[in-house]
Amino acid sequence: MNKKVLVVDDESSIVSAIAYALRREGYEVETANDGEEALVKVASFHPQVMILDVMMPKLDGYGVCRRLEDREDIGIILLTVKNDIVDKIVGLEMGADDYMTKPFEIRELLARVKALMRRVEKSSPSPDDQKNQAIVNGTLRIHIAHRTVTVKEEKLDLTPKEFDLLTILMSNPERVYTRDDLLDRVWGMEYAGGTRTVDIHIQRLRKKIGDTDQQKLQTVYGIGYKASAPEPGGLV
Question: Count of CB atoms within 10 A of residue 185's CB?
């Protein structure tokens, strides 16, 4: 399968440099110069990874993330000229998987693309998956082979990271994971972001699964998170 990357930035020199470096590494590359064009390219090109500038005309990077909130198979690396932690948190809350601050080293960007591509590819079900296996916790059901989650039989739109994070916690109910442990398991050793990333994704998951009364995803203060014990017959 071709490894596809979409590069989106309104600075043509940056787009050209990134695209050239990626093609030398064997990636299939498409480019866009604004957010609206990016959405069109996503629909036609179907990239596994998108390198997305934040400040762009017509539709900025945050807007693109919002439009793609129901994506299940695109990893997003945000590019920003700002080094403010608030901007990075906003990007992660919008569903981005990683971020880099301009100016950046092309070699580091390539390393992050490679790491993210590897995680996205792992998210695709393999022939060895247990096709009928599912994790059940109350009205929440994780269909492992198809990488889908339903609550009250309604499908949720989760990003790859959200799915992986939820599955790890729900697969081992009552086990307490530190933020560092979850960061390593879901984002990998190459990820340079802090543990705040985990908190943001837990918040997003709670909102999406309606986790208010049952508290399926529980905070263990000073340590990390755990999933509540499932009802009998939780792994089928």
Answer: 12
